[in-house]
Specification:
Two copies of one chain form a homodimer.
Chain A lengths: L1 E6 L3 H12 L1 H8 L3 E7 L13 E2 L2 H6 L3 E6 L6 H11 L3 E4 L2 H18 L3 E2 L11 H7 L5 E7 L2 H13 L3 H10 L8 H4 L2 H15 L1 E2 L6 E2 L7 H9 L2 E11 L5 E11 L11 E8 L3 E8 L3 H17 L11 E2 L10 E6 L15 E7 L1 H5 L5 E5 L2
Parallel strand pairs in A: 1-2, 1-4, 2-3, 4-5, 5-6, 8-14, 9-11, 11-17
Antiparallel strand pairs in A: 7-10, 7-12, 10-11, 12-13, 15-16, 15-17
Helix pairs in contact in A: 1-12, 4-5, 5-10, 7-8
Chain lengths: 384, 384
């Protein structure tokens, strides 16, 4: 019998407990042993929970219990979660998480501790929720030189953009809809301004090229400035507006990563990904384009990925995975990345002033600075 | 340095050699050691090949060489490939293949030998070409009860159906196009009649539920009888015609698997998968729907999956994967599976004869026998 502990009994922690209960039979059959949830750590008083007998408030109980092999960190944030993850790894316990803020910001340090202690720190659920993406990228595509990763990494903004497209409504109204459906938080800043997607593209970049890309080092642009007019003109030109996280390896070996809204041609498999769904496109020099699609959030989908990591650890106790992005990436500013742009209104400036045609798609690749010089009312990158 | 051998130097074998050469640096960096291609077994005289110095014609050289750790079986078919795979596994060598005929027909026996010898028999490339699907299904989704797997598993037929849709042309013309582009073989039977997709859905079913589904035990229907009228009427009703391999676990625990053309609602992520691309939708009770998309064939995409398996084996020498589907599945005949149907023409028969409306989509679930009684000119399952 393998014993695990969950830290933080919110959406994700509760989902993990539920999947372990709901699928206990299948899990035992596949693993060849039972996975027993021994502790649930939460500061709240949850004595009325069906798991009341396993609820604890003192982390050191988990830390000191040699029976606990795997700890699920579902606390969130990068304060207590960081301290408890450090201590759990130092205590020789494998740690599994969906905490993208912690992995993107402190993964380098935590992976080093895990490696030194001979345990695993896995975080499949930190990108794309339940979508299998990190393990396929690291294992199935290991024979490829990864050239680009490009994806719809945030379900909240994709729902908002889908509603703006389908309903022709403004960002603010679509946001209110998302909030009323529970798809957006009361303070939606991290989602709508691209921070959540930014942390995820950093993790993907860290893994794909083994070099650390810090979230604070990349440009993140959200969707709050996208207008129904932009969406309408994009459609008229055969495009859909999507918030993309992109990471590219340039021919000179340097990298770039950024988050920004893009016009995606309807012919792209990403264009049809709507509502809260996520999709990640990986381009390798052997496989070509491979895409991974599914629910990027939610208690059970996220728990599906967490439990998958737990089972992987327990199936391979003798040889745990060691991931490593200890070296910093040689980054190119995304602003210097020349792409086609969609521009609306504005003027070229100078003596020969002329208003740009509404919804003009400039097919000549331009940098952000060149586009800024156009003083357009709206300028959105086009996914070539 | 890890030494490998390739058996069969055709499209797949050549692709594997090319990926090992092209990405040697990345592979060595990720693995921490060089992967050296020591032998290429082929009955043909390839003395003018750049690999002439490694060409051999006698399998026993590989079999007897203790340096060879991994053998890639790219011979195809289930005769010589079966004998050499058996002997390689018995000789204590890991074997990697893309040979769906061999895996679907003899995987049970070969996996038993691998388990007994403590080596791996991996075949990620046998389903979906370069698309990571088997490892994500077995590892990332291990915490799920898999409820359904449904996919476009054959690129040749998907190209033909795409051309029939886009060009409004007949099956025969679209097939000739596919052949002229090299997407279809001179004898396209195995593709167009569903056998290739059938072998793949059997492998997916074997892995998802750990019970063997023999290809000869499932119903396989191809697309040669699909008319432009069917495709046109399907579109008019908001559907696309796709050849799907489906495997389901029924509420009573029994399973069914089959291959047949389906009307797929345009709202489904599978509907937009065109040309030679494949896509596999997996439904789990925790993750919900996850989809995997990419090139289902071709030398480099297929080689990408083969090399991924090779690296996985070499990274986990101490704990090789043991897959097992030694028990037979409790199968329900797909004909008994009640689904909505699209029917065209025909008559209900009997005294009160009436011609069915052209392109009627019968939303009441019916079995194949019930639909046959309608004596329709055309009857195609609808993906609900």
């Amino acid at each position: 019998m393998a014993k695990v502990a969950i830290m933080g009994f919110g959406t994700v922690g509760g989902g993990v407990a539920e999947v372990l209960r709901m699928n206990a039979g299948i899990i035992q059959e596949r693993l060849g042993e039972e996975v027993y949830l021994k502790y649930i750590l939460d500061i709240r008083d949850l004595s009325d929970s069906p798991y009341a007998d396993r609820m604890i408030k003192d982390f050191s109980i988990i830390e000191k219990d040699p029976e606990v092999e795997v700890v699920v960190e579902a606390i969130g944030g990068a304060k207590i979660a960081l301290e408890f993850t450090r201590r759990a790894l130092l205590a020789g316990k494998h740690v599994v998480t969906s905490n993208k803020e912690l992995v993107a910001g402190h993964g380098k340090e935590l992976l080093a501790i895990a490696k030194e202690r001979g345990v695993s720190y896995l975080f499949e659920a930190s990108v794309g929720g339940g979508i299998p993406i990190l393990r396929p990228l690291m294992q199935c595509l290991a024979g490829n030189e990864i050239q680009e990763i490009c994806g719809i990494l945030n379900g909240t903004t994709n729902y908002i953009l889908t509603r703006m497209f389908q309903g022709g409504i403004a960002f603010e109204e679509a946001l209110r809809e998302a909030q009323s459906k529970g798809y957006a938080e009361a303070d939606p800043t991290a989602d709508v301004e691209g921070l959540d997607a930014g942390r995820k593209i950093c993790i993907l970049s860290d893994l794909a090229w083994g070099r650390e890309v810090r979230p604070e080092a990349i440009s993140m642009e959200g969707i709050s400035h996208i207008t129904p007019e932009d969406v309408r003109l994009a459609e008229a030109n055969g495009y859909r507006v999507k918030l993309l996280g992109r990471a590219l390896r340039l021919p000179d070996g340097r990298q770039t990563a950024y988050v920004a809204p893009h016009l995606v041609p309807v012919s792209s498999p990403i264009a049809g990904v709507d509502d809260v769904f996520n999709a990640i496109l990986v381009r390798g020099n052997a496989v070509g384009d491979a895409m991974f699609y599914g629910r990027g959030a939610g208690d059970l989908p996220t728990a599906s990925a967490v439990v998958g990591d737990i089972l992987d650890i327990l199936q391979h106790r003798s040889c745990c995975r060691t991931l490593d992005w200890s070296q910093p990436a040689d980054l190119v500013d995304a602003g210097d990345l020349a792409t086609p742009w969609f521009v609306r209104g504005g003027q070229t400036g100078g003596a020969a002033e002329r208003t740009l045609a509404p919804g003009a798609v400039m097919t000549i690749p331009m940098t952000a600075a060149q586009v800024a010089a156009l003083q357009a009312d709206s300028a959105i990158r086009v996914l070539a």
